[in-house]
Design brief:
The protein is 40% helix and 17% strand. The protein is α/β, with parallel strands linked by helices and 408 residues long. Strands 10-11-12-9-8-13-14-15-16 form a nine-stranded mixed sheet, sandwiched between helices. Strands 5-4-3-6-7 form a five-stranded parallel sheet, sandwiched between helices. A two-stranded antiparallel sheet has the order 1-2. α1 crosses α5, α3 (27-48) runs parallel beside α4 and α6 packs across α7. Pfam families: Aldedh (PF00171). Belongs to the aldehyde dehydrogenase family.
């Protein structure tokens, strides 16, 4: 695994290029963040490989008993197209460390880096048959993984609709366990005491990072009435200055949407928002006549029952709303069928504690957003951050890292 990580670092530029060509991801971000991060995941779990222990149990009768943690067997990994490198190794690294074999199906939109990672795995000395990459479409290759009786577990990241189908297939085949990380419509709550400049930066990054193709994107933005007008002015100003274009240009902040279908889906939601009566503050249009580029789009005067507030759009579109009280903010943040992530921006520790404990979300970021770390499970722990995104996870939740889901 350490040699595998070395090989990834030796091929960073090629891997970042493949993800940019396949998914429209920023080359600079892939080269400096996502691909190096993939290598770090490998090294992290390589270090955990010889630290997996059972427990000796204290029995009430004169018996000796102990537990063992053993590989669950063959794991099927179904990977989405928005983070093809990060999610490849978030899934495969712990499975490799505990001794599982696996079948990896990358998204049909982004197969190239996965195939290259399979090549590097062979060069690193991972035995044939341990890490297998099978390209294909969801209804065929993905369905086969979900329903095959010789696959012992499925790990899937993607849409809620497909996640339901995978659970059904797993239940109807061999009752294999399923690990799902699905859609989101995450709220960011910005309170009156927040620094408007910092808060508007977080909000813009929250819905525009990776061109909005992020499951935990902050696409419902609630701002307390005392700073609402100043915040709106600042956010619109920054959105208009956000550079969209060629993902190989180092000045660009986000590239094209992944494909024509996603591009058209986002534009259809924008048109629906207009028809429902929301006010378009900025954006809302394609950029140029070639490629799938969309401007950062901000709606206001929206209602909770509008589709642009209810549905996951998976693009650079945000619904901006005003609130008065802490209680109102909590109620509106929880008025969703999703529960993936949330953000809070405040200088008041009491507000931060109250709201973070009241929002039903797997991850709550305070004074930061999209802050990730290998030592903190994604979507299952409160992350308390400074504005510089330094944070620490809840120590009890770190058992998820020490005991990977791929083990019994």
């Amino acid at each position: 695994m350490m040699k595998y990580a070395d090989l990834i670092e030796q091929n960073i530029e090629e891997l970042a290029t493949l993800d940019s060509l396949d998914a429209g991801k920023l080359f600079s971000s892939g080269k400096t963040l996502e691909i190096p991060g993939a290598a770090r995941y490998l090294r992290y779990y390589a270090g955990a490989a010889d630290k997996i222990h059972g427990e000796v149990l204290k029995m009430s009768r004169p018996l000796q008993a102990y537990t063992l943690l053993e590989p669950i067997g063959v794991v099927g990994h179904i990977i989405p197209w928005n983070y093809p490198s990060s999610l490849f190794f978030i899934k495969t690294s712990p499975a490799l460390a505990v001794g599982c074999t696996m079948v990896v199906k990358p998204a049909e939109q982004t197969p190239l880096s996965a195939l290259f990672y399979a090549h590097l795995a062979k060069l690193a000395g991972i035995p044939d048959g341990v890490l297998n990459v099978v390209t294909g479409f969801g209804p065929t290759a993905g369905a086969a993984i979900s329903s095959h009786v010789d696959i012992d577990m499925v790990s899937f990241t993607g849409s809620t609709e497909v996640g339901r189908e995978i659970m059904k297939a797993a239940a109807l085949s061999n009752l294999k366990p399923v690990a799902l990380e699905l859609g989101g419509k995450s709220p960011i709550l910005i309170f009156d005491d927040a620094d408007v400049d910092m808060a508007s930066d977080l909000a813009l990054q929250g819905f525009c990072t990776n061109k909005g193709e992020v499951c935990s994107a902050g696409t419902r933005l609630y701002v307390q009435e005392g700073i609402y007008d100043a915040f709106v002015k600042k956010l619109v100003e920054k959105a208009k200055a956000w550079i969209v274009g060629d993902p190989f240009d180092p000045q660009v902040r986000h590239g094209p949407q992944v494909d024509k279908a996603q591009f058209e889906k986002i534009l259809s939601y924008i048109e629906h928002g207009k028809r429902e009566g929301a006010t378009l503050l900025t954006g809302g249009k394609p950029i140029g006549n070639k490629g799938y580029y969309i401007e950062p789009t901000i709606f206001t005067d929206v209602k909770e029952d509008m589709l642009i507030v209810k549905d996951e759009i998976f693009g650079p579109v945000v619904a901006l709303m005003k609130f008065k009280t802490v209680e109102e903010a909590i109620q509106r943040a929880n008025d969703t069928r999703y529960g993936l992530s949330a953000g809070i921006v405040t200088k008041d520790l009491n507000v931060a504690n109250t709201v973070s404990r009241s929002i039903r979300a797997g991850t709550v970021w305070i004074n930061c957003y999209l802050a990730m770390d290998r030592d903190c499970p994604f979507e299952s722990v409160l992350s308390v951050c400074t504005s510089h995104a330094k944070f620490s996870g809840h120590p009890k939740e770190r058992e998820h890292i020490k005991r990977p889901e791929y083990m019994l």
